[in-house]
Amino acid sequence: MKRNICPFMVGAIIGLTFATSTMAQTADAAKWQELIKNAQKEHSFGLVGPPDPHLRTDLPEAFTKRYGIDVDYLPLNGAETMTRVDLESKAGRTTIDAVIGGTGSCWTMVERGQIENINGKIIDPAVVDPSVWTGGSLRFIDGGPVPSGTPADFRCGFQPAEWVMTDLFVNTTVIRPGEITSWKDLLKPEYKGRIVSYDPRRAGPATTTVSYLNYLFGQDFLKSLYLGQSVHFTADHRQLAEWVARGEYPIGLSLVQFAVEPFRRQGLPIERVFPADGPGSVMGGFSVIALVKNSAHPNAAQLFVNWYATQEAQTIYERDMMEASLRKDVTGTNVPDYIRPKPGATYVDAYKYDYNENVRGPALDMLQKALER
Questions:
Q1: Could you give the domains of the chain?
Q2: What is the pTM of this model?
Q3: SS (H, E, C) the chain
């Protein structure tokens, strides 16, 4: 159920930058070795993850090489994941043991009682070392709408990455540097029909941008921008980036870095813009991993979660997904600077449950209904 926006809650959100829940994990060498042994007895496990062709190959291959355990990697989106986990859970036959994805699906499955508490599951002594993590500890996602009787320490998932959302790009041969300094500049008459966005009616990056603009300026601004400026929509990440890079639509909303960077490497004039009245929100992207409750291979899945937090796995993830890892020893992956949080900047934490319920939900409900008319 969506709640009305509380000004005190909204004011608190801006101060919660980098404040996603952190809890100490205990290293136990004996339990760690026992987990490895029990996991290898299970031989394999089922993992849902992003459909990126490199990640779906690189992560399983590296984990199998390290521990001799096969990974059945299923490239599903959030809606497909939730549907499949729900059907399997109700049937009592789970083939999915762990899920890599965003927070929305994690929270939904928690509400259904289908997610295992991940707190206390990371025990690899090399991983729980606080010195390797930005902020001094591993980062976890709160449970959200947890069922009654859930332990107070319940955490929905582990978040190993954080980056600044890629809200706004321009073609610099058409839109001069410094031409857009405020989000409100996008409402200028000369930009009508010249803006393209990822489709906010689909699950994807537009939901984050829409939420943030609602937080900053409210729903009237959303209507003025997305409807009043005749924004064009697509659900194709590459097409969206190419339109901006080649100037067909010189202003782009909700592009993603893995689609943008190939055009930048070709020398095309596509650049990130940070309006002074809204530097952006931080998020974990696809990086959050959760454990499915009553799964068939719980030890193998838990072992994967521990390995997923290692330098080896996070280097693969950061390189393939272009999402900045929270591990300080992951380097050399050529992640673009525009996604890395800047010292002194104030960001909104887009991975807080209250923010999603009170800011994101109402904005998307309104805009999606308006676009259907």
A1: 17-162+284-341 (3.40.190.10), 166-279+359-372 (3.40.190.10)
A2: 0.87
A3: CCCCCCHHHHHHHHCCCCCCCECCCCCCHHHHHHHHHHHHHHCEEEEEECCCCCHHHHHHHHHHHHHCCEEEEEECCHHHHHHHHHHHHHHCCCCCCEEEECHHHHHHHHHCCCEECCCCCCCCCCCCCHHHECCCCCEEEECCCCCCCCCCCCEEEECCECEECCCEEEECCCCCCCCCCCHHHHHCHHHCCCEEEECCCCCCCHHHHHHHHHHHHCHHHHHHHHHCCCCEEECCHHHHHHHHHCCCCCEEECCCHHHHHHHHHCCCCEEECCCCCCCCEEECCCCEEEEECCCCCHHHHHHHHHHHCCHHHHHHHHHHHCCCECECCCCCCCCCHHHCCCCCCCCEECCCHHHHHHHHHHHHHHHHHHHHC
